[in-house]
Amino acid sequence: MLKSIMMVTMLVTNLNVTEEAYDEYLDYELVSQGVVDESLAEVWGAEEMVGHPYIVMQPSSGESVYLRFIEEEDMKNYKPMGTYGWNSTEILVQNPDQLATELESSPFEIIGMPYDLYPTPDAPRAMQVLGPSDEVLYLTRIIPEGSGFNLGSAQSYVDRVFIMVLGGPSMKALQDYYKTSFNMPVTEASDWTIGVISKMNGLPEDTVYPLSLVQFEENFLIELDEWNGADIFEPRELDQGHLPPSTSMVSFSTNSIDEINVEWKHEPHSIDAFPYNGSKVGVTVGVAGEWIEVIEWE
After folding, report:
1. pLDDT tens for each residue of 43-95
2. CATH code at 84?
3. Whole-angstrom distance, CA of residue 161 vs CA of residue 238
4. Is 281 buried (19+), middle (13-18) or exposed (0-12) by CB count in 10 A?
5. What is the average pLDDT across 188-216?
6. What does DSSP assign to residue 226?
7. Are residues 209 and 192 in contact, defined by beta-carbon separation less than 8 angstroms?
């Protein structure tokens, strides 16, 4: 089973611009930087990433859930919420309305103003933005005890990642994959209107998307979205030996990597770099083209 989300990796076109934006406006702190070495690229099965510079950033709460940005110029056919794979990184915040005001003249482009996800006093309240390289972020307030999934709430003004959104062409394939490969509980799908996806793709506001949740014991979820408009949504292109563009890979912890039933891109091995710190690491690719990094973590 997967225990937690440890890190989200995004490919960005300019590391300096990205670091400044996340530092100044989201209060994320640089905690590590370097270049991708051969050992890491090997476990990814992405040998052309060797030498690419990266930074790792952490929320001001001190939570050990990181954002890793790797510099890459070519974003191929990526468009926000338009290609299959990891599409949105959802982050806990304390006050999305105030944050929206602060982001109005920033490198972040607001694509969805704050709104309640459903009409109850304790409903989550979320907004959506594009980062400097068009990466999609959901910035969401959950009041204490306001979640039926034990997700927690923000301990700093902008806190940690707590949900990753995955889009694919088949809900059944997504559900079966996370059940069988990772032994994770997955909810039944239900139909939702998701205004920001429809808006970004020029679809009617009342378009419905089957949605399901991969449940962790606490603090995290994976949201599975079925995007079955074949003439609009398409697989994300990537060059041989490279990671996928934009929201590229999600790193999950597990107690035992040997119990994970997937085909690894390379035999898992230990990685010394932060935040692995000598842990065994393996990478696989899911049914929607999403890259999944599994870290054996006690």
Report:
1. 999 999 999 999 999 999 999 999 999 999 999 999 999 999 999 999 999 99
2. 3.10.180.10
3. 25
4. buried
5. 94
6. E
7. yes
Nearest to 61 by CA among 32, 33, 94, 90: 94
82 phi and psi, to 5 degrees? -130, -10
The two three-digit tokens of residue 161, written as one number: 């990642």
82 within some domain: yes
In a domain, 145, yes or no: yes
Average confidence (pLDDT) over 28-36: 98
Q: Residue type at 217?
A: E
pLDDT of residue 67: 99
Tokens (6 digits) for 165: 């959104």
- Check: CB of residue 281 under 8 Å from CB of residue 271: yes
Distance between CA atoms of residues 149 and 214, nearest Å: 11
Domain membership flag for residue 240: yes
The domain total for the chain is 1
Which pLDDT score, from 0 to 100, does residue 121 have?
81
CA distance 64 to 264: 25
Stated pTM of the model? 0.97
Which tokens hold the place of 131?
A: 């980062």
Tell me how far apart the alpha carbons of residues 51 and 141 are, in angstroms, rounded to a whole number.
38
Domain residues for the domain of 244 are 4-254+266-296
> Across residues 179-195, what is the average pLDDT?
96
Would you say residue 278 has pLDDT above 70? yes
Question: 147 is written with which tokens?
Answer: 């979640």
Element housing 35 (H / E) = strand 29-35
Residue 232's φ and ψ, nearest 5 degrees, are -115, -50
